[in-house]
Write a structure and sequence with these properties.
Two copies of one chain form a homodimer. By secondary structure, chain A is an all-alpha fold. Chain A has two domains: 48 residues, Homeodomain-like (Arc Repressor Mutant, subunit A, Orthogonal Bundle), CATH 1.10.10; 129 residues, Tetracycline Repressor, domain 2 (Orthogonal Bundle). Chain A is built from eleven helices and no strands. The longest helix of chain A is centred in the first third of the chain and has 23 residues. The first copy, chain A, starts with 5 loop residues before the first helix and ends in a 6-residue tail after the last helix. At the A-B interface, helix 8, helix 10 and helix 11 of A face helix 8, helix 10 and helix 11 of B. Chain A binds a DNA duplex through helix 3.
Chain lengths: 192, 192
DNA sequence: GGAAGACTAGGACAACTGACCTAATGTGTC
DNA sequence: GACACATTAGGTCAGTTGTCCTAGTCTTCC
């Protein structure tokens, strides 16, 4: 007996992976069906269109991101520690990034070019990081420029992901990550 | 009478524009034919495949980039002036970037995901900027870290383009450009 | 065991893709 | 005018796409 919703979850999981590695448009129903091992016609019992699958994928990514960010807010960690956790994804996920780039950035870029209806939803993943980072900088005592600092970290890491992917250069990525951490250390910490 | 090679040039020009605005894969022969106002079958007299058109597009982009970089090497400009010219493309081309992102970054990202044979060629556009920027930093007296500085500028602007596109936020882009220029000013200038 | 509903397989559909072919037209040269 | 060649239009092709439909199977609950 199949657990309820298993097929649907498998479809979303496979689509999530394929959308990341091949791009949304370049991934066909046949591709997903091959991975999950179901017939093509089966999709339309769970989703009413391909865009529907995309929306489900974005939703799970939003969920996972939120959980990841929450997990980083452990006991005994400082805001700087947490920001470092974010910066270090570049190294943690390097084996994927070098081949497929940043999952968030590449999806948003593709949907922007397709002028896809769900691009706003996809951008919310960026917003999740932005708000979380902003909050960390606020805790460091940066009231006025917390958002600017958050955006700065966001764009910095985004650029490193893009260039690291293009040049397939781990040494450079490591170097930039160190630079980001060093920059972070120079920031003043104000206790209230 | 048609000037020689006009149609071919028109095809490349239209493809260049469409590849940028819609993405390579999402652009069909019909799309290009509509712009240039020729029949579909006509393509195969000038190009042997769609990939062939892509190669021609990349070649013209390489040419144009090279000319642009050469133009920036005017009389009486300092290396810092020239680097500033690069940074300010973000503002100059903002009306396009906000909708379609960076032409170089988005193409390289797409071709990486498609694992396309021409992705190496596309990356050469990045290399062009990289070498040029490296050269500017060398002229500023930075021998050992010239390449690292070049890559830093490259990734920084790349990230700003991606985030600026996602959030459609000119104020943020302006802010980051100012930050980059300020950072540039802090760099020491050593005369030999 | 029988009814109801969830789930699935597999085929069919029209639309579109890049690719290829051939016939026709234009252009320049001798 | 005759010839060679460059250029083009328009049709055809097989393959793939997302979508939809129907018939059938499995599961659950009474």
């Amino acid at each position: 007996m199949m657990a309820q919703g298993t097929t649907r979850r498998q479809i979303v999981e496979a689509a999530d992976d394929l959308f990341y590695r091949q791009g949304f448009e370049h991934t066909s129903f046949a591709d997903i069906a091959r991975v999950v091992d179901i017939s093509r016609g089966n999709f339309y019992h769970h989703f009413k269109s391909k865009d529907d699958i995309l929306d489900a994928v974005i939703k799970t990514r939003l969920d996972r991101t939120q959980h990841m960010l929450a997990d980083w807010e452990e006991e005994g960690t400082t805001p700087k520690d947490r920001i470092r956790s974010y910066i270090k994804i570049l190294l943690t996920n390097w084996s994927m990034i070098k081949d497929y780039g940043c999952p968030v950035g590449t999806l948003c870029t593709e949907l922007a070019k397709l002028n896809h209806a769900s691009k706003t939803e996809a951008n919310k993943i960026f917003t999740l990081f932005r708000v979380w980072l902003r909050n960390q900088f606020r805790q460091l005592g940066h009231k006025k420029d917390a958002d600017a600092l958050a955006m700065h970290v966001l764009s910095w890491s985004q650029g490193v992901a893009t260039l690291g992917n293009a040049f397939d250069d781990y040494k450079y990525v490591k170097q930039e990550v160190d630079k980001m951490c060093a920059w972070l250390d120079t920031l003043s910490v104000r206790t209230k």
